[in-house]
Design goal:
This protein is of the alpha+beta class. It is about 35% helix and about 40% strand. The chain folds into two domains: about 50 residues; about 120 residues, Lipocalin (Beta Barrel), CATH 2.40.128. It has two helices and ten strands, in the order αββαββββββββ. The N and C termini lie far apart (about 70 Å). The relative contact order is 0.12.
Length: about 180
């Protein structure tokens, strides 16, 4: 009889763990789906108080942040332009304006094997980052206006086409850019 009660107690803990993990997985999938589809997500709250999500940033907050964001982008571009311009002949030129799969414009400034990137949304600059170009790959770290930071890598596929990925706390997402 004692073993049966212990087995039930153990099974109950397993079911609780499974349900909790299912809830966490559902919340994560919902968040990623919303982010990929550019739907605003401020938070997802689970009954025990655990919160998943991003902090919403209003267009007013983005507008107010433009001076500081522009200063940071200018500083990164200045740093890139001051870098040595010598790069192997096999280094791709990522410089210019690109349109991402999210329909927003991205500007990449490159000097030799150093690069900077900024995302220009309808509201202004919403992301900036810097990194290095090695051959046909531009790898960089970035910070967005809503506080999300991550890493990304773009592969120069053709003169007007880039493909790659970005990694944040929400997981890995594909990137496609064209000009």
């Amino acid at each position: 009889m004692a073993r049966t009660a212990e087995a039930r107690k153990g099974a109950g803990s397993g079911i609780k763990w499974f349900l909790a993990m299912s809830g966490v997985l559902l919340a994560a999938v919902t968040l990623i789906y919303a982010m990929v589809n550019h739907q605003p997500v401020e938070k997802i709250t689970v009954n025990d108080g655990v919160i998943f999500g991003t902090q919403g940033v209003s267009t007013d907050e983005i507008t107010e942040a433009q001076t500081e964001l522009q200063r940071k982008v200018d500083a990164l571009e200045k740093q890139v332009k001051a870098a040595p311009t010598t790069a192997p002949a096999t280094t791709a030129d990522f410089s210019g304006y690109w349109v991402g799969g999210d329909s927003w414009t991205y500007e990449i400034v490159q000097s030799g094997s150093t690069g900077a990137i900024s995302q220009i949304s309808p509201y202004g600059i919403t992301l900036y980052g810097q990194g290095n170009v090695t051959g046909t790959t531009f790898s960089f770290t970035f910070q967005s206006v809503n506080g999300v930071a991550g890493t990304a890598s773009l592969q120069y596929m053709a003169p007007n086409h880039l493909e790659g990925w970005m990694q944040t706390y929400a997981g890995t997402q594909p990137i496609v850019m064209n000009r």
